[in-house]
Every structure is written in C-alpha cells, then in structure tokens.
Amino acid sequence: MNRTKVDDHVAMAELPTTGSIFQASWPVRTGDIHTDKQLRLDAIARYLQDAGFDNLVDRGAMDTHPLWMVRRTVIDVLEPVVWPDRVHLQRWCSGLSNKWCSMRVRIRSDGGGLIETEAFWINIDPKTGMPASISEKFTAALASTAVDQHLHWRRWIDPTPDTTPSADTPFPLRSSDFDPFDHVNNAIYWQPVEDALPDRLRSGPFRAILEYTQPIKRGEQVSVRTGTNTLHIDAGDEARASARWFALSPKSNDQG
C-alpha cells in the first residue's frame, strides 16, 4: 500500500473561534487508568463515544441520526491525563461530506493533561445498514466549523504487516465487549494497542492510530499480530482493525 508520511503525520485542525462546539466535562475514574495512573487509550476511545452520543442528544439529532460507524480514530497524547483529575472535552467537526464527517475532540484536564483526537465517522441508515446522507439541518451545524467541505476516505494503515510479526496472540472476547448489534465495541479494539505500546513511547508525546475494516461479531475467534510499531486484530483470517503508533515532537502534534 502506498501510505505516505503526509497521511498519518498530518496536523489536526485547530479549535475554531466560532461555530458549533460541544463541551462536556467529567472526573477521571479509576477504571479508566493504567497502572501508572495515566488515562488509557481504550478509556479515551470510550470518552469519544460518550461525547459523541451526548452531542447528538444536545443537537436533538438522536431520532434522525442515531447510528454512526467509526472508520478511523487518531489519538495524540501530548500531555498525559493522570488520575486523580477532571477532563474537559470540546467536540467539533473538522471535515465533512454528505454521508460522513471528521470529528475533532480536544481533551484538557485540570492537572495539565492535553490529548488531541480526530475520528472519521460515517452516518448509517439503521434500516439498511448502509451509509446515509446527513440531513441539511445537521449538516449546517457541522459545516459551521469544518475546514474540509469535501472529505474523502483514504486508508492510512496497510492491513498487511510491514515487518515479520510475532506469533498470533489469542484475544478472548467477553460478553461485556459487545454492543447492542452484537459487534465488538469500538473502544475494546484499543485494549491490545494499549498493551503493545512500549514504555519509552508512553514517556513522551505520541500518536496512535486505529483503523476499522470490518466489525467483529459474537462467536468469532480473534487474534492479535504485532509488528515493530503496528498491530492487527484478526478474525476469520483477515484483519478487522489495524493500528500504528509513533513518537511526536514535544512541541507539535504533526511530526514524528
């Protein structure tokens, strides 16, 4: 695959000064943290889901846009959030098309933590399970902050390992890992990524990227194969999700 450094090292859109920006805040819980008390990647992913749901409720869009599928999530941990702490989230649209959008979420904490995220979301028709057009009313709110009005999907991570991977590691699933559609919850995919991150990377600013290819359903056998700085979550002899991570410059979030 022709993946370029420009793709996965691209800087995230800055916080706009005007437009529709959703805000939320809550305390960090002990169930959200690593053994070093830093906020885990899977907890960050869950925060993004919760903020997205609350944002839909706040916009009165739950009836018209109840179902969204995430294709990629990018997490830049610039300053770790360390428990005990309280996080403050700001969520806005950075890119837009008629059926999908990129949503930025900035997470700051009272203790000085700073995490920048961006996720590529597709609006799904609950009846057909296919991508659906975003309504004009909802589009207007998203467009008020979008810097890219012609958003296109482009994969950043090759699902084929770029180095010889280690032996497959089984990844047993629990009933609590599944959502109401009997698919593995998006945040669960981040758990093996959290396990694979080297301590030296966690000690400074870093970026982690996770791309979803196909959902994992109940009853499937799942395994994880890990490369030098990549990870692939497999089921049915194919990658269902792929991750990549690398260090960032201490003074920016766009260079590794």
TrEMBL record:
Pfam families according to UniProt: Acyl-ACP_TE, Acyl-ACP_TE_C
Record-linked InterPro entries: 4-hydroxybenzoyl-CoA_TE (IPR050563), Acyl-ACP_TE_C (IPR049427), Acyl-ACP_thioesterase_NHD (IPR002864), HotDog_dom_sf (IPR029069)
Domain (Acyl-ACP thioesterase N-terminal hotdog): residue spans on this chain: 20-141
Stated name of the protein: 4-hydroxybenzoyl-CoA thioesterase
Organism: Rhodococcus erythropolis
Biological-process GO terms, alphabetical: fatty acid biosynthetic process
Family annotation (SUPFAM superfamilies): Thioesterase/thiol ester dehydrase-isomerase (SSF54637)
GO function terms (MF aspect): fatty acyl-CoA hydrolase activity
Domain Acyl-ACP thioesterase-like C-terminal: from-to ranges: 166-226
